[in-house]
Amino acid sequence: MAEAQDYTYVGTRPVRPDGIEKVTGKANYGADESRPGLIHGVVVRSTHAHALIEDIDVSEALALDGVYSVVTAADFPARDKISPARKRMFENIIAGHKVVYHGQPLAAVAASSVALAQKAADLVKVTYKALPVVLDMRDAMAPDASVLHDDMFTQGLPETPDKPSNVVQKTAIRKGDIDEGFAEADIVIEREFVTPMVHQGYIEPHACTADVNTDGHTTLWCSSQGHFGIRDMAALSLGMDAGDIRVVPQEIGGGFGGKTVVYLEPLAIKLSAKAGRPVKMVMPRDEVFRATGPASGTINTVKIGAKKDGTIVAAYANLLYEAGAFPGSPLGAGAMCIFAPYDIPNILIEGTEVVVNKPRVAAYRAPGAPQSMFAGESVLDELAQTLDMDPIDLRLKNAATKGTHAAYGPRFKDIGLVECLQAAKAHPNYQRALEKNQGRGVAVGFWFNAGNNSSAEVHVAESGMIQIVEGSPDIGGSRAAMALMAAETMQVPYDRIRVRIGDTDSTGFCNTTGGSRTTFATGMAVINACEDVVVQLKERAAITWGIDADQVDWRDGQAFPKPGVNTEAEPLTLAKLARSFPKTGGPISARASLNAQGPGPSFAVNFCDVEVDRETGSTQVLSFTAIQDAGRAIHPDYVEGQMQGGAAQGIGWALNEEYLFDENGILENPGFLDYRIPVASDLPMIDTQIIEVHNDTHPYGVRGVGETPIIAPLAAVGNAVSRALGIRMSDLPLSPPKVLAIIDGQ
User: Fold this and answer.
1) Cα–Cα dist 129/50, whole Å
2) Rounded Cα gap, residues 224 and 207, in angstroms
3) Centroid of chain to Cα 333
4) 451-595 has which fold?
5) Which has the minimum average pLDDT: 147-156, 203-212, 257-266, 567-576?
6) What is the mean pLDDT of the chain?
7) Same fold, 298-449+600-744 and 451-595
8) Which class does domain 298-449+600-744 fall in?
9) How far apart are CA 726 and CA 240, in angstroms?
10) What's the average model confidence in pLDDT over 343-370?
11) Angle at 626 (CA atoms; ends 622, 631), nearest 5 degrees
């Protein structure tokens, strides 16, 4: 374990800079924008899950007094000359000749009020020719299945297919010889696991406001996880130059990966262009559930072989992921993660992605990994039971360490899995004795993390205050993290630093806030820009003292002559240097843009205790402990918050949450009343422990921490319930009716 370094600011817990505005209601979210002459837009959505569109008649809607504009697919660029992949992206924004899920947009209406716009939308007449609905992945793969896209051919096959299919792709990851591995095994366990389609459950619905000038230049205000990405996707769908769209980021009321996609934005821009007025659009809650991107449902089969001493010699997985109505499932990430925590010589992971008549999936915190690792970690737990081994000891015996070659490609550097496992075994919660009908489940989580492109600018104000402008929306405390890293780099007090999220016209490009990349990548850009500012400050001090810049030291936020140089000179504070800028060369600013490499993978160990009521099937989570390697926790409060939030979401996924469709593909629980996310009374106090194993590719050792916390809870809860009942649970969610049926069927 890397030796911890003492820092002045990094690792402290100051109040977040945006906290007061958010708790007092002053912060501006997606639906808060107001412009002169503002009108309101609503979407006309399909009432069928699979149908040809024979006609869309908007005449009655346009005739209504107070309606300013109506758009359909005919108002968007022609789709007959673009690639099938781009065409399908456009179809998810607004359907052309066919609908492939219930709630797919068909048209949009803008009027003087929301009520009037909805009335006009109800007057839009759509003529359909219904087609068979395909909701089950295995049905969708059948040779005689109704095909969603006649221009989609399965990728990844040895030969190019001559018939369209609902199978998007086949993929495989291999390491060693799987047949030889299983031949060496003394014990082999194989099981199938099912996880449902679930939603991220963010509190704030999708919302945006678009204002198109007469010259075509557009300003868009929206809540998203990446306004540069929103700009580029909107421009692509509209046939516009991205330089003609300015996106102003609003505060975000939750996203968890679900606000990385355009839904309303292109529609609002088109409505505004036709109406000559700014247009605001806000999704009702039922539309958020019906027509935005949930997480993939999966059917995953895992087979693991081990020696009698617990050494795992072979691991196989067959992963089946539903993409919803359009390709884009996180199958690849699920395959990368499933066996990554373990040093296994022989691995084969086969994956299949399938389209069905459900909304197209989107990212949900570590997209794809919770589903696959639920299956893998459940089989590991059963293996530990079969071998009569402590589940942590089994994982310690096979844990990946520095130098382990992961099946998906890399050879790990310093990683913290062993330290997390050891901390879990030593934790007081792990020592507690269990009572009747109680069970304890253990699981490991893994996420590879991301780097990618980031930019930042740092400006020194005349007062000596430091102003940072960067382009990563703050979805988990990144403003505070940027300020802490800047404070540490420049040795300037945290309260003298301000961080602003710039719009797409006022700061350099940043990839979307996702993949646990922001503190790592954008933080690195901030650090680089701060280092440049320090160099310039030393140069200004050198000018003041009449010495060379390499004769100046910078420490404690001040310039000092190096020992033996100009011993009569007084230290120059940042404030003094700033006041002298007009005489020493003008303002000081610096910017940095980079493609961050080496994000450093993250590991977590979760364990929880549950009690199952055998008369009702109800499960109570008694305690939950999350342990995770953060590299270096820049702001420990936010790291712990990420761990607790991921645990809460994972517990909900394991016990209650699922999309329920009727036979026609209509979602039956599109709201928080019927879609049951955990509330405070459902959860125990979630205990956390941060492990810090330095990631040497970042100046402060950072590893991304946002994704990993949601991966292990599904299996930790599932394993706990399995041990409480003495029955292996394999089909989520473990809701009371489902658990009771299994108990009664014993």
Assistant:
1) 9
2) 9
3) 12
4) Aldehyde Oxidoreductase; domain 4 (3.30.365)
5) 567-576
6) 97
7) yes
8) alpha beta
9) 60
10) 98
11) 170
φ, ψ at 627 (rounded to 5°): -125, 130
- Residue of 155, 135, 28, 5 whose CA lies nearest to 85: 155
Which residues make Cβ contacts (< 8 Å) with residue 284, sequence separation at least 6? 205
Give me the sign of the Cα torsion angle 669, 672, 677, 680: negative
Measure the CA–CA gap between 553 and 555, rounded to whole angstroms. 7
Confidence of residue 83 (pLDDT cuts 50, 70, 90): confident
pLDDT given at position 81 = 79
* pLDDT recorded at residue 3: 46
Reported as a pLDDT band with limits 50, 70 and 90, residue 691 is: very high
Please give the structure tokens belonging to residue 437.
Answer: 């009908």
Give CA–CA dist 414/602, Å, rounded: 10
Neighbouring residues of 158: CB distance < 8 A, sequence distance ≥ 6: none
Residue with tokens 């060693």: 176
- Per-residue pLDDT tens for 601-610? 999 999 999 9
The CATH number of 33-131+204-253+259-291, from 3.30.2090.10, 3.90.1170.50, 2.60.40.1080, 3.40.1110.10, is 3.90.1170.50
CB 168 within 8 A of CB 154: yes
Task: Say how far apart CA 442 and CA 433 lie, in whole Å.
Answer: 15
Query: What is the DSSP track for 499-556?
Result: EEE--TTTS-----S-TT-IIIIIHHHHHHHHHHHHHHHHHHHHHHHTS-GGGEEEET
Cα 620 to chain centroid distance, Å, stands at: 28
Which tens digit of pLDDT belongs to each residue from 135-170?
999 999 999 999 999 999 999 999 999 999 999 999
pLDDT at 87: 87
Amino acid at 229: G
For residues 544 and 568, give the distance between their C-alpha atoms in angstroms, rounded to a whole number: 13
CA 710 to chain centre: 10
Contact 295, 361 (CB under 8 A): yes
Predicted local confidence at residue 4, as pLDDT: 54
Cβ(210)–Cβ(268) below 8 Å:
yes
Whole-angstrom CA distances from 98 to 68, 95, 277, 357, 523 are 26, 6, 30, 12, 44
Domain segments of the chain: what residues? 33-131+204-253+259-291, 298-449+600-744, 451-595
